[in-house]
């Protein structure tokens, strides 16, 4: 059994490196990710889906990206919500926060900000976000239930969650789950899709649904995008 702090350390070291590969580097199990309209963005893009395609962002909204990496989804979200809206990225790796801020400067995006922090302890006040997105991150988190309950706390009543992630159909072999290196590669921490949806419901979300996924083969990881809402007050 690997300890949570060990996993966090391995994941942080992986994404701090200049050559970090994402969850889809060696596989064709991911949906496409998109940075169209982000001219000048120098990446890296390490996602495994397009949560923004299912977030239905409106002008003026506040969007938060859990595990924002180099900021591609945050910068795109900032464009979509316009000058009266805001996009906030949260990431636990200082090197990623630095890259994201550099990308924001290059693209001259002024309504985006990046905060250093863990998504299990979000640096956000209660009910402060209209929309929360995440792209290929929660699989890397040892306590996924805590991450979803933090997302629930930070969303306003009626707010929306759209998450792309690596999941499984059934359980992965214990030898795979016990290997710290396969956590950083988005394999060991992936959980069964039904269990993933159940964790989101247990955090308090409603209308939890899978909106798209790549084909799921037992014993292998695949990408799914899930949407849910926090019940209105
Ligand atoms: C696979 S990359 C995805 C980055 C980005 N979402 C994208 O689509 O390019 C995973 C990111 O999640 C961050 N991360 C992993 N675990 C985290 C945690 N517990 N809290 C905050 N960030 C985390 C890593 O530092 C890394 O930047």
CATH superfamily: Vaccinia Virus protein VP39
Total beta strand runs: 7
Q: Tell me the Rg in angstroms.
A: 16 Å
Structural class: alpha/beta
> How many separate domains?
1
For the largest beta-sheet, the strand count, sense and barrel status come to: 7 strands, mixed
Helical content class: 25-40%
Ends apart, CA distance between termini: 41 Å
How does the overall form come out from the CA principal axes?
Answer: globular
Output the CATH topology.
Rossmann fold
The spatial strand order of the largest sheet comes to 3-2-1-4-5-7-6
Q: In the CATH classification, which architecture applies?
A: 3-Layer(aba) Sandwich
CATH class: Alpha Beta
The distinct bound ligands, ions and cofactors come out as: S-adenosylmethionine
H/E element order: HEHEHEEHEHHHEE
Strand content: 15-25%
Overall residue-averaged pLDDT value = 92
Low-pLDDT stretches are none
- How many helices? The count is 7
- Assembly classification: single chain
